[in-house]
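#lab-general

N.A. 3:47 PM
ok so I finally got the sequence cleaned up, no stray characters, all 497 residues accounted for. can someone with queue access submit it? mine expired

B.Y. 3:52 PM
send it over

N.A. 3:53 PM
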Amino acid sequence: MFDVVNVVLANLVKTFSIDKNLFVGISLRREDHVCSRYERGLSYNSLQDVIKYLRREGYLTYDKGFYNKDLGEGRSTRIRMTEKLCQDPSRMGMLEPQSDGEGQDGSSGILITGTETIIQVFYPEIIRLKDREKELCFYDDTPATKRMRDNLNRFNVFASKHSIDLCVSDGEFRSVLDRKSPEESEERRYGWGSDQNERFIDLTRNRLHRVFNCSFDQGGRFYGGWWQGVPRAMRMYITINGEPTQELDYAGLHLAMLYAKVGEPLVGDPYILEGIGPEYRKLVKVTLMKMINAETRRMRRPEGMPLPPGMTWTTLRDAIAQSHPAIAAYLKSGEGIRLQRLDADVAEDVMLSMMHRGILVLPIHDSFVVDYRYADILRSEMLRAYRKRLGAEIGIEADQSMIDELVSPSEDEVRDFMARRQAGSDFRGYRERNRASQDRKSTRDAVEPSTPIQPRMSPHEITPTFPRPKSVDSESWTYFEYVAFWPLASPSPALVP
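B.Y. 4:20 PM
back already:
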């Protein structure tokens, strides 16, 4: 019973620390609480008892889920912690109200302090296989899946020792997801973005998993990092351990891979077509991506992206195909999902080689974010990994960086720049997160659990204080996770039904 109490309370506390109005979506169907490769499995009866008790005592807000068979629509039950529980820390023996009161932006939350109040996340299977309906399916382990799991576990443990954040004002943080372009919305349909439907930036989501499609020859990309959902225009503000970063991209990755397959060089900008102005480059890029991923001629036109004058959706696709005759056989063949396996293996090579150097890189499928001081090393490793897998050359492009305005800066100049940037009152959230990260770093060895709850699940610490999302209402919620207070010190007996 206590295990269930711990997990439910830790979910409520984690969500409350993001925003007191944020819900946790939780399925109360018995079949969703079984132990499997993908789920740890909690006692269904105990889960029901715990939630009923918390509701009865006024510690829980409860929004019952529903399912309409006629419409085929519904939603999970949603729960959230009430301030009564936060204001009565003796009931839990683990919480303290936020010491400095309500924040300037109207936010409130809790500080999770002391070794007994660290929240740990225990992650389920990180090598995931989905069927054609996008549902997780079971598989037998092989030496290859074991190797991939071991590699990714090592990377996740390494990444957990770093602080990954977004150096923007609290106001910008709340609205960051509103800045996605139509191009990025389309890219998400084909596995180029995050695999979560984000409503806000949750900085606790910084552990990766791999997703394969139908077989281990298809897909395999890395998902799960909050930075993958950040709009491209805002990624320049990502920081690693408080340092500004640089993002490096493979230029036209899937096109370059297809040309490498046929032994032809990819010359020039593949997204600039004769007779079509450069202002339509993004449209051409998205359309070509669709054509590589599609298995038939039927595909939807990108939303929010106007066509060139005098062209239809069909004539645009024909013009693109005519511009790339060497790879015409791969267009509308579904080759994209197989290329994803190849680019994921390249990404793994880059991540592991940089990790062996003691340098963290954050993968975003065809690009990587790294501490600006190590950009040249990353460039070399990206080229090496591509040559190893494809036996060809490829271009590397540097995206805009937060410190581009500085010309060949010294580390002291960058440090001064970062201090000035976050000095204002509207950067209070970023400063608090940095301070919390430094505190965790100084005590990490003391709170490292010796035995995970389940062998496949790796522990990870949670940052306790975040700026509020832009707007929080009954439609704003996050996922129920297998999180727990660590060590597993029993809460007040009053909280155990």
